[in-house]
Amino acid sequence: MRLQKSAISLTSVLCLGGVVAAQGPREIFPIESTSVLSAGAPMIMGPLKCGPDEAIYLRVVENPEDTRLAPVLRVSPDGKQVTRFSLSAYPSLQKGEIIDFSYSPRGEVYLLSSGSGGEYFIIRFDADGTLKLANKI
Length: 137
Description:
The protein contains 1 helix and 10 strands. It is mainly beta. The protein has one domain (about 5-135). A 4-stranded antiparallel sheet has the order 3-4-5-6, with no helix packed on it. The longest helix has 6 residues, at about 20-25. It starts with a strand and ends with a strand.
């Protein structure tokens, strides 16, 4: 998918990097508005999270009629790089719902997802958006 300029813009936030990650959630303050490259999604789905490198992680709704698998995007601090973490290319994982997401200091993204039969999965992506592991829990 080719990324293109979208009507979506995010407000850049002041993140305290590793201090925030080590101490848990902190209040964040807008410092400027930046246009962001995106896949043209119509809505942003909360929560927004700040990574240790000041990247912003968020979910975007591409199909307003079905938000269950809304992908996670990692937006670089300057808004110029967007990495997509999505289950859309993995048919065996499309029957459930993404419940929450988190990230590691190395930029890996972890999704907590439910399956269609009531089971739960932890799904790990590399920092480049490549699915690496899906474990049933």
